[in-house]
Task: structure prediction
Amino acid sequence: MKRFSGKKGIVILIFLACLIVGYYAYLSNRNNAKQEDAEAAILTDVEKTLSRDLETNYPPTPREVIKYFSDITKCFYNEEYSEEKLVELADKIRLLYDEELVANQTEAEYIKQLKEDIEEFKENKRTIYSYAPSSSIDVETFSEDGYEWARLYCLYSIKEGAMVKKSNTQFLLRKDSDGHYKIYGWKLVETE
Result:
């Protein structure tokens, strides 16, 4: 112990204390930097949905089209977003629609009707809890009038207060000239 007595001992103790504090600061900053990077990498559901480029990454099957349609629909009714994001979501979903379906409404009419639907949904405290499209083997494909068509179902679970209601929707899709299935229309299926 005589080796560390006096000035030499104090200097060594200060040096060791600085090493310990420095190492602690290094570890703390490293963890904070990782946490900040992770938080920056987390996208909202709206941002994730909007990040898909439909020109290069269009859903390859009718089932995938309905899954992406349902993801956008969940964003409309469940998430918080700006007016700008609403328009972006509306533009994305209209890219999934057949040209005849898009021709039924102008973009302004579509957005106006969509806002009314969303408002009514939120006033009734509804959210889309989950959805389940038909399995791939349950997708019915057929040819008619020179077009290829697909018919499938998607079961939506809609939460209203404490209750969960089921809504079964039948979708009809038509293949366009680029080979992409586009939503031609849909209807609610009455359950017995």
